[in-house]
Amino acid sequence: MADTGVVETLLRRIEKVDDGVDSLEAASSLGVDHQVIVGAVKSLQALGDVISAELRSSKHWELTDEGKEIAEQGSHEARVFSSIPLEGLSQSELMKLSFGKIGFSKAMSSKWIRVDKAHEGGPRIFRTVDSVEDQVREKLLLVQKNSGSQLEEKDKNELKKRKLLSEVTVKSYWMSKGNSFSTTITKQETELTPEMIANGSWKEKKFKPYNFEALGVAPDCGHLHPLMKVRTQFRQIFLEMGFTEMPTNNFIESSFWNFDSLFQPQQHPARDQHDTFFLSDPALAHDFPQDYLERVKKVHSEGGYGSQGYKYDWKIEEAQKNILRTHTTAVSARMLYKLAQQEKFTPVKYFSIDRVFRNETLDATHLAEFHQIEGVVADYGLTLGDLMGILHQFYTKLGITKLRFKPAYNPYTEPSMELFSYHEGLKKWVEVGNSGVFRPEMLLPMGLPEGVSVIAWGLSLERPTMIKYGINNIRELVGHKVNLQMVYDSPICRLES
Amino acid sequence: MPTVGVKRDLLFKSLGRTYTDEEFDELCFEFGLELDEITSEKEIISREQGDSKASGASDVILYKIDVPANRYDLLCLEGLVRGLQVFKNKLEAPRYRRVGPVSGEPQQLIITKETAAVRPFAVAAVLRNMTFTQERYDSFIELQEKLHQNICRKRSLVAIGTHDLDTISGPFTYTAKPPGEIRFKPLNQTKEYTATELMALYKNDSHLRHYLHIIEDKPLYPVIYDSNGVVLSMPPIINGDHSKITLNTKNVFVECTATDLTKAKTVLDMMVTMFSEYCSQPFTVEEADVVCPDGKTCKYPELAYRKEKLSSDFVNRKVGINVSTEKIAQLLTRMCLRSEATGVGDEIEVEIPPTRSDVIHACDIMEDAAMAYGFNNIPRTTPRTYTVANQFPINKLTELLRQDLAAAGFTEALNFALCSKEDIADKLRKKISDTRAAHISNPKTAEFQVARTTLLPGLLKTIAANRKMPLPLRLFEISDVVLKDETKDVGARNSRRVCAVYYNKSPGFEVIHGLLDRTMQLLEVKSAHGEGYHIQATEDSTFFPGRCAEIFVRGKSVGRLGVLHPDVITRFELTMPCSALEMDIEPFLGHTAEASLTHDVPMQEVLKHKFITQDDSSPAPSSRPTSTKTVFGDMSTPAGLKALNDFLADKSYVEGFVASQADTAILDAIPSAPSPTFCHVLRWYNHIKSFQRERASLPSAESQFVLPAAPPASTDDASDDDLDLFGSDDDAESEEAARIREQRLAEYAAKKSKKPALVAKSSILLDVKPWDDETDMSKVEECVRSVSMDGLLWGQSKLVPVGYGIKKLQIGCVVEDDKVGTDLLEEAITAFEEYVQSVDVAAFNKI
To answer: Which has the minimum average pLDDT: A172-186, B238-252, B380-394?
Structure first.
């Protein structure tokens, strides 16, 4: 609260005039600093409509400290000139003077003085003219007298460049009576205090109104990453549907489990150096279940289990190559093989959400690693209709109800289906996932019983997250280039809404 | 997925009607195709090269259609139209026939044995009396290109050559010659080149340079000559100009050379089935004889029709529909798989034409039936599969911890699992050779050289990218790093870590330390030496000297925290002090009642499989050991069982968090099923028994739990307190725990001591044997440790039973090679004659 004395004086002054009072004038007539008046205005404004204050700004020119010195004592060059006697002055002497250096060069360029470098006893300076006119000083004096209104713009700028003048903007208030003008003011309380509650004084007090337009103070807290929030939701959905989480904490996988066990032939383009990250260390995997490996080899190279096979020369060396897994289906393969080793088959529902790696060209929507969401169900007698039914239930939980299925191709599923959902915004069908029934050439060599079908589907975690949080560049979402402000600001994730 | 571009109007003319874009899109969808784009040549050129280049280009509308990668029969207009017409019941699938020549002998292609080293297979066929138009010609060239890019794997598996038969004369010879000896005028060139010159010429050819590597470093290049020595082609690079196809060509000689014969046959079948449509006798192909180096002659193209039988029940059951046998046969016929009910039950006979090489199993036929039925007409059902959901324990812990770390004021970051070597080594002031990092052999950029071994660089890079954000920055990540691990089948494993950083104008070690305390509180670990957690000063080049501590939990090191070294800060382009914490969280996994899944698969298949032919190769699992003595005491006595019972009261397994050989060993030491009084033992006993079948594949024990059978004399030896660890209830457990802790420390130290150092050092494990079982082993150890030399550092030790109650002291040490020799050590230790009988070097490793 500003000094009450000033506030009251100010109010009385406003009361007396018809139109209004300028805060600058008030300050000079009251003999106080302008800031004191400004403080009083602010506190009066806070009280409501006691006064109306209109902000005005005016510009004028002022001398800088150096400018003031010059106005008083003359410009550096003039002082140099006047300090040189007729018989001249040695340059070293001149340079000892405070204004010597600057003034010397200026006076030289104005040709007021000359240097005799050959003079015995060092260079010596002589006057070249009899008298000089100190224009700089005169201009500055002009500014000092009447704020420089008579000075030309060019001169002002020249002096401004020499840091002798500066342009000052003065803000002042034009104060007049407000709707509820009064010369007496009651002080309003800002906040309820424990004392007020204790002594009941709050009943008598007036309280300042809150500004409900302003934002509150942001809580000091940490934040979860949006992609991980979406992952949590997908995990939740799978758990709600009774799916058990697979152990996908093995980024490095052998080609055997990543490709061969899935009946993906060794010449398949996905196994190309251009698509998959291979490892140089540890380069090769060892320890494969030997019997199973032989059966995989056979079904690739010769067929069997009702299949023609791919009829090529299957090589263990190719299967041994370690890679960064290209899909979490590699883990599904391990789990299904393990399931097949159980004494008695039991139906399972598995899921996983974890990182996979592709040696791809990067762009705004593709990274070399992304999260794959995968669901797998193994049981006797599962049908394509069952797969569609489960997908319908799964996507309904994501808020997607309009689904349709397109036949597709995938080396390890048959039938294979791409899922499309109708996007209300884009007014078209967009792909939202892939699915299929694992091929018998994959399941039977593992040792799963003949009648068991395994249905599966997958999608990426990044795409739904980017749609959900309206992110166009994947690099702003994943990786170190993340925009932390986006992380701070991202809402909770409710997929269904 | 290959994309085929066809002219819309031409397509509609062939289909016999027009469609709106939407209608055609719908038709594609049903048939498993995707109308990817509607465009024109002009539009494509203007998009790729700018408007100026596009003027004058054709603005005929093109449909770009995505075709499934295994449907080579749909890669050209002819195939697409045929497929769709048959699908819409407007056309009966044509029957492709191989015929002999009208007159004379079939064309002959003779393969010489020289080809074996470079490209051993070849097949050939002749298309007679063809009529080309510009469109047909374009499609003919385009199909070759599509096949080359897809099934031919960029010509590495198969390369196609097509020739105007009337310009050349058979028999043709497919041979291989040194590149300098091959000389011809290649397609669209004006002069002759040798093969060597050609390879140099095509180095800069935007198209052909991609194929050069296939034969480049071979001593002999494949080449096909006609009977007059005219070069037809030099596969897989280029054809000769002499025999090139023009619009006036009538008779076409098609050859495919290959490294994969199956694929060569498929490719040849595809070429001739698609374009025999334009022969004077449509869908007939004239045979060619291919003579192999062994003298055998084969006739091509094979154009084999294969018959498969399946039941309509199979289709109905797999798809989840109920359709009559006849109807299913009709559905399949619409997919170019001519089918009919045989009348035997619900059997259907399906004929797979040469165009459908993708059909290799009954399930492929089933899919076609489902497609013809319409995927979206199949009723959606819910399977009755009943299962209980389980979370993967480490993920469950991660989820819970993430929430609370965010509540503690830290913001979650999510960084890449791949990074540069620099990130995990140089920038952290470490050597790459010390990191146990897995290296990628084919990274496209430096960002993907290794899998990260620490989460710290990611967080520091996140800060660097967010320097504009207000301070302090508090970040965390819980995620996996990858470490080499020889015990895994792939030689590496993931490790789940938590990492947090605090970045501000002051280092804020207390903030990071506070986060550690909070994390431990969340994980229910008390601050205490021994069973709790504590931190202990250590030196680490990543951290500022004197500002780093190691985190110990139950005596085991789990990670580090401290203030980062200024060089680390600047190398990550940061300017403020920063403190960090990184530790493993796997040690905090509790036990779960349910057996959780692991990705380790059993290496041995046992029992049930019909595949296994050898009789009972694996030994009977439960051969009872002669000893009932274990570290818990004698399992044949109630005291021993009680000790085990107490031990198992809060543990699922004897060792670690999964069943291991330690469990089975102890199991075998128990003579009979324990009585219900020992409820924990009984629970464990039943659980471990359920692993009997896969016991061989269980992880091996970290330490020895079952003691060798002792002779009767010492069995009753009461003074042998080692065998009666659990004689008294209370101390027993803590002693056992202490023992395990000691052992873990020893392992840790051993691991640590293996780290390379600048000075040539060796890690030595010594076996110190006492005179008898009455020697005070603690005294032995005291003596050994009293040996001190410059360059000698004693490590952890343990007592290892050798039999008859005698234990030897196994003690590790690190020596500087130049200063300490093993003989010197042995001499010094054997000097304690009254305790030490002998000293042996059990292991000696250079580090």
So the answer is: A172-186
Q: For residue A18, what is the domain's CATH number?
A: 3.30.1370.240
Q: Which residue has the higher pLDDT, B698 or B367?
A: B367
With a cut of 50, say whether residue A254 has pLDDT above it: yes
A372/A358 Cα distance (integer angstroms): 12
Contact B416, B480 (CB under 8 A): no
Q: Is the pTM of this model over 0.80?
A: no
Q: How far is A24 from chain B (nearest CA, A)?
A: 38
Asked if B628 and B660 count as a contact pair (C-beta separation under 8 A), the reply is no
* Secondary structure of residue B27 in the 3-state scheme: helix
Assess whether pLDDT exceeds 70 at residue B712: no
Average pLDDT over residues A6-11: 79
Contact B498/A at CB under 8 A: no
Is the CA virtual torsion A179, A184, A189, A190 positive or negative?
A: positive
Q: Which residues contact A368 (CB under 8 A, 6 or more apart)?
A: A277, A357, A358, A359, A360, A362, B416, B418, B447, B448
CA distance B437 to chain A (A): 8
The torsion region of residue B692 among left (phi > 0), alpha (psi -120 to 50) and beta comes to alpha
Predicted pLDDT at B748 = 63
- Can you give the three-state secondary structure of B94-109, one letter per residue? CCCEEECCCCCCCEEE
Return the structure tokens found at B692. 């009997």
B752-783 residue pLDDT tens: 555 444 567 788 888 888 877 777 888 888 88
CATH 3.30.930.10 positions along chain B are: 394-588
Q: Is the pLDDT of residue B721 over 50?
A: no
Residue A275: CATH number of its domain:
3.30.930.10
**Class (C level, CATH) for B306-374:** alpha beta
Does residue B29 sit at the A interface (CB-CB below 8 Å)?
A: yes
> Residue B337 above 90 pLDDT?
yes
Considering the four listed CATH numbers 3.30.70.120, 3.40.190.10, 3.30.70.60, 3.20.20.370, the one that applies to the domain covering B761-846 is 3.30.70.60
Say how far apart CA A310 and CA B519 lie, in whole Å.
54
Alpha-carbon distance B209 to nearest alpha carbon in chain A (angstroms): 16
Mutant choice from B30, B67, B361, B373 vs A, greatest count of A C-beta within 10 A: B361
**Which residues of chain A have a CB within 8 Å of the CB of B573?**
none
The range of the structural domain enclosing residue A39 comes to 4-59+171-177
Interface touch A389/B381, C-beta < 8 Å? yes
Residue A446 contacts residue A337 (beta carbons within 8 Å): yes
Instruction: Answer yes or no: is pLDDT of B98 > 90.
Output: yes
Distance from the A494 Cα atom to the nearest Cα atom in chain B, whole angstroms: 16
pLDDT in tens, A236-250: 999 999 999 999 999
Domain B394-588: give its CATH code.
3.30.930.10
Residues A25 and A69 grouped into a single domain:
no
Predicted local confidence at residue B750, as pLDDT: 63
Contact (CB, 8 A) for B688 and B664: yes
Cis peptide before A440, with omega less than 30 degrees from 0?
no
Tally of structural domains, chain A: 3
Measure CB to CB from residue A228 to each of B157, B410, B414 and give the nearest one: B414
Interface pTM (ipTM) of the complex?
A: 0.70
Of B828, B827, B825, B835, which is closest to residue B779 (Cα–Cα)? Answer: B835
The answer to whether domain B97-300 has CATH 3.50.40.10 is yes
Confidence (pLDDT) at B695? 75
Question: Does B632 score more than 90 pLDDT?
Answer: no
Which of A149, A154, A141 is closest to A74 using CA atoms?
A141
CATH classification of the domain holding A81: 1.10.10.2330
Q: Which fold has domain B3-88?
A: Phenylalanyl-tRNA Synthetase; Chain B, domain 1 (3.30.56)
Residue contact A383–B491, C-beta within 8 A: no
